[in-house]
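FORM 12-B: Structure-to-Sequence Request
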């Protein structure tokens, strides 16, 4: 991605504002971990199976298929790991001199990250249910060493999108139910990156910029659940995209040999964070009393994220940044097996395509195509209580990073590659009343 500011200060202020959306715009940083049983089957069939209260997130129409009122709490512990390789990145200063950009190759920037969820569902009549869900739907937290070779692209990212979802479901007939919910979202971001010194790339001479911003906004979701036969169920679900206008403060410290200033530049600014529309179609088929097969296709509308318009109270910070994301999809297949009345076993596989492209892939989102392998189990010690467990291994494919970052003092050309993996452990409790 190329950024052409009119002045070094403009780059320092505009870059972190513009990069705020880029911290989540990849399939991997849409957080699917919204239910423990779903994780155990790689989220296959989630819009159709309606086996517990987490259906509030995946298809609220499924509440009408629950056996009784239910409260559910779960937690996922994510162990992400990413490595980035430098394949000859360079810096060309204003005098035309080209120097290598060196530094550490990005030791894993991620710490183990907890991700909790909560759901409540209760019937109000024979045909009407109310529910509520709480979870973090998008997010990333990572920090590189200060001498990271791609420090002019990113050093620190901390972004969370919290979603509160009051929902309703209505059973229209014996075979058809509809449902919907309001998505009340809070987005919060902290971003940090380095500014290159005009003499050359040196961590001791670099400047730095930092952004903190947040936003509240509202979306919605709608679903339908159809029993095609006594053993086969179809689920359809749509979640609207939400555009957050992140408003915050950018703090800029100039490089050692940059334009002289009396102190750090502090400016207010805003940039849109466009989260995608998400549409899912799922099938659940019960082969016999023990085996259930599950299938799901999910589509993500990332293509509307083609550029970011940055607005600021600093006139030099006005900027438009190209993004060039593509639509993506995920395809999952899984199964459940009722071992006995006390135990249910499950498993699944998912392929999740990244929307990022080589020429615009940032080290803030070192994403690639993802393959999920998942296992899970539920223990039912009584008719009212269930304990859910899940594990997923997510392989992130190796992808190229070819980025251009332009400043008045010179141009940084990044050439490298990235790959990663994620291990996920989940546990939850469900209580029916």
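FORM 12-B RESPONSE
SEQUENCE OUT:
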């Amino acid at each position: 991605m190329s950024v052409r500011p009119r002045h070094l200060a403009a780059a320092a202020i505009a870059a972190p504002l513009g990069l705020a959306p880029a911290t989540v715009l990849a399939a991997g940083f849409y957080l699917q971990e919204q239910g423990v049983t779903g994780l155990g089957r790689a989220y296959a069939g989630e819009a159709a199976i309606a086996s517990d209260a987490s259906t509030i997130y995946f298809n609220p129409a499924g509440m009408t298929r629950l056996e009784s009122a239910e409260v559910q709490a779960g937690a996922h512990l994510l162990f992400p790991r990413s490595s980035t390789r430098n394949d000859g990145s360079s810096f060309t200063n204003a005098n035309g001199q080209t120097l290598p950009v060196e530094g550490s190759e990005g030791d894993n920037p991620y710490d183990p990250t907890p991700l909790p969820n909560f759901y409540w569902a209760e019937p109000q009549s024979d045909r009407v249910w109310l529910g509520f869900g709480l979870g973090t739907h998008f997010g990333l937290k990572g920090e590189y060493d200060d001498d990271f070779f791609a420090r002019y692209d990113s050093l620190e990212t901390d972004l969370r999108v919290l979603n509160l979802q009051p929902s309703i479901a209505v059973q229209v007939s014996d075979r058809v139910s509809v449902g919907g919910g309001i998505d009340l979202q809070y987005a919060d971001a902290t971003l940090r990156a380095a500014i290159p010194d005009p003499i050359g790339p040196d961590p001791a001479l670099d400047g730095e910029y930092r952004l903190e911003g947040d936003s509240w906004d509202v979306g919605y979701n709608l679903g339908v659940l159809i029993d095609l036969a006594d053993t086969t169920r179809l689920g359809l679900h749509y979640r609207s995209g939400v555009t957050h206008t992140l408003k915050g403060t950018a703090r800029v410290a100039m490089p050692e040999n940059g334009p002289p200033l009396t102190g750090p530049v502090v400016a207010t600014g805003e940039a849109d964070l466009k989260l995608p529309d998400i549409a899912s179609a799922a099938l659940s088929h019960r082969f016999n009393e023990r085996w259930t097969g599950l299938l799901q296709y999910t589509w993500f509308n990332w293509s509307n994220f083609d550029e970011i318009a940055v607005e600021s109270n600093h006139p030099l910070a006005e900027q438009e940044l190209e993004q060039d994301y593509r639509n993506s999809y995920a395809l999952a297949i899984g199964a459940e097996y009722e071992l006995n009345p006390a135990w249910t076993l499950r498993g699944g596989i998912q392929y999740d395509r990244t929307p990022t492209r080589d020429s615009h892939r940032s080290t803030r989102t070192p994403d690639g195509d993802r393959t999920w392998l998942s296992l899970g189990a539920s223990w039912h010690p009584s008719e009212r209580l269930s304990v859910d467990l899940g594990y997923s291994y997510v392989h992130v494919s190796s992808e190229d990073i070819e980025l251009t970052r332009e400043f008045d003092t010179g141009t940084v050309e990044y050439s490298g590659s990235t790959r990663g993996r994620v291990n996920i452990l989940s546990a939850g409790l469900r209580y029916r009343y």
